[in-house]
Every structure is written in C-alpha cells, then in structure tokens.
Amino acid sequence: MLKEKNFLLIKIFLISFLPVFFIWLPFFLHLKQLFFLPIKSGGMQNILKNWDGPSYLIVAKSIYDSEIVGKLLFSGLPHEYFFAHFPLYPFLIRFFSIFFSNFFYAGLFVNLLFGFLLNLLFYEFIKEKAKKPLLLTFIFTIFPARFLITRAIIAPETLMVFFILFSLVFFEKKRYFLSSLCASFAVLTKIQALFLFPTYLFFFLEKIIKEKKRFDKSFIWIFLIPLALFLLFFFYYLKTGDFFIFLKAQKQNQLYFYFPFSQFNYQGSWSGTGWLEDIVFYYLGLAILTASLFGNKQRSFFYFSFFYSLFLVFIPQRDITRFTYPLLPLFYYQFASFFESKIIKIAFFLILPAIYFYAINFILVNQAPVNDWSLLIK
Fold first, then answer.
1. How many other CB atoms sit within 10 Å of the CB of residue 73?
2. Which of 319, 335, 356 is nearest to 285 (CA)?
3. Residue at 313 is within a domain
4. Which one, 61, 70, 98, 353, has the greatest CB density within 10 A?
5. 371 exposed, middle or buried (CB, 10 Å; 0-12, 13-18, 19+)?
6. Residue 301: inside a domain
7. 320 CB-near residues (< 8 Å, 6+ apart)
8. Tens digits of per-residue pLDDT, 215-255?
C-alpha cells in the first residue's frame, strides 16, 4: 500500500515537473533555434522577464518600500502600480530566497512546489468523478496552455488556484474555518479569490431560507475573507497613507468594472486588433459550466461559478484566459467523463506540439523591458 502511494506521488510529481522542464529546456540550453522558432539570446532571462514576474520580484525585494522600488524600476511604471501585486506570493519568494542563490530561482521553486501540491489536491478532488484521475491531472497541468505557462514563470496563479480549490473542498466538507482560512490566503494572493465570499454567503442564505435552519455560529468564519482584504488595505495605508491605493493600481492595469460585454468595443485599449471571437467561446464555456452546476449538490461550486463568471462579464480585459483559472478545477470536475474519453486522449496527443510551441512563443513575446536583470535577483 505504501509503495503504491509513493509510486502515485512520483507520477504526480513527474506530471507536474516534466511539462515545465521542457518549457525551460530551450532557454536553459541557450538554443538559438527550436525548429522554425528563433530563440532570443539570454537563456533563462527570457523566463525572468515574463510579465508579471519582474513586478513580483520587485515586491519581494522591497516589501512595497517606495525608496527600494524606485531603485529597482525597469520601466516608467508609477510606484502605486506594484500595490496591485498582492503580498503572499512575493513573501513566499522572499522566504525561500534564503535557501537559493537569488530571488528568481526561489520564485521558480515556489511555482514548482505549489504546482505539485495543486496537482496532488486536484487528483484527490477529481478522483471522486473520474475513472482516470491521473489523465485528468495531466490535462489540467497542460491545458489551457496559458495556465501551463504560469507554472513555468514567476506568476501567482498556481498559488491562488491551490488555495481556492482547497477552500471549496473544505467548505463542502463543512470545515468552515479551514475553508475561510484558505480563502483568505487566496485573497492575499490575488483579489479574484474574493468571490468566494459571496459564494459562501449565498450558500448559507439559501440553506436558511430553504431548510428554515437557524443561523449557525460556524458560518461566521466566512467573514475572515473580507477581513483579510481589509487588513491588507490597512497595511497599504500604513505604507502609503492611502487606504484605496489598490484601486489606483488597478487603473494602471486597466482593470475596472464597466458595462457588461464591454470587451467588444474596438476603441478600448484592451481590444487589440478587435478580433475577439475567442472571447465569445470563453463566455460560452462559462455559461455552460454555470448552467450545468445549477442542480449540483455541491452548491458552493455553482455559486462560485456564477459570481466569478458574472465578474468576467463586467471586466473589459483581453487576457480573459488568465482570469478563468479559478474555474478550471470545477470545469474538469463537471465534465470529467468527457475529458477521459479515448477521443480526447487522441486529440490531446495530437495538439501537444501546438501547446508546446504556443508556450515557447508566448514566453518570447510577453516580456517586460528589463535591461539589468541582476537588480531583480540578488
């Protein structure tokens, strides 16, 4: 039994590590060409420069100290921009930098560590629905390819999804304190996790109305979630004298609530060429997931999908792929039987090269203008 568990851990580790390793390989080997794709010089600097990695390294090194931030700035970004980068992920980078030669490799280690932990959690989560949980774990690792990229660069999404999924799992087991604690950690990673709060609030309201139950004192733990955000904003106030500096930072990121479906405005700075048909498919996926979860006995899954999808409808942002990551575990959970079919296995085998070249190409073009990278890693 112990051997089987150890063997399973090794499999999940390989599923977590090997796709990331193969993304790093052309840069680590300083290749000049990968088949048809020219590789920029600089080796692993290409990984370091990927947005928003340099920004998180600046926060890790400065702890939002404006004087230190000023010395590390690599572009014309204002100081308040960095308050959009929440502290849990950079604080972990700072902690693990004790054991590594620099902040950059500490950040990559944090991603590998939580990529493995997330896959372990996802495996335990998905095996309730899937006959082939290892296959689903592999697909979850590599698709969408944009999610795989965030596992390979300095990016907090893996950490956020880990805590969000843990929170939902604990909540369904009625372990409300642990659920709220994980949700608080997720909020301190990225603000999108705040949608766990209305999720749990509406779950309890539905329970009180439908089942005519009294207010359960254990429900009060969900208020840890907004409390975490309040304490973070208070910390920002102590640093800057501005309690709402995060909102100014979000304007720099061009993230704000607007009219629903305002993605489709050719005048918006987010629209690029205006060819946004892929976003329609994402909205379709969100609608299918939410509708299919409506009758689900795990009511928190439905409410989270509903509130989070509603949020995406009101945010005019081109990079909607990155914003959908918190819903990925629920998507694979709900449609597990579809993804473990023989046809899907063949299809994923055929598109593996596309996923790989997309990832390498994306890393080569999604780079911050960092000239002296030594300032970010010492």
1. 15
2. 335
3. no
4. 61
5. exposed
6. no
7. 263, 279, 282, 312
8. 678 899 999 999 999 999 999 999 999 999 998 887 666 56
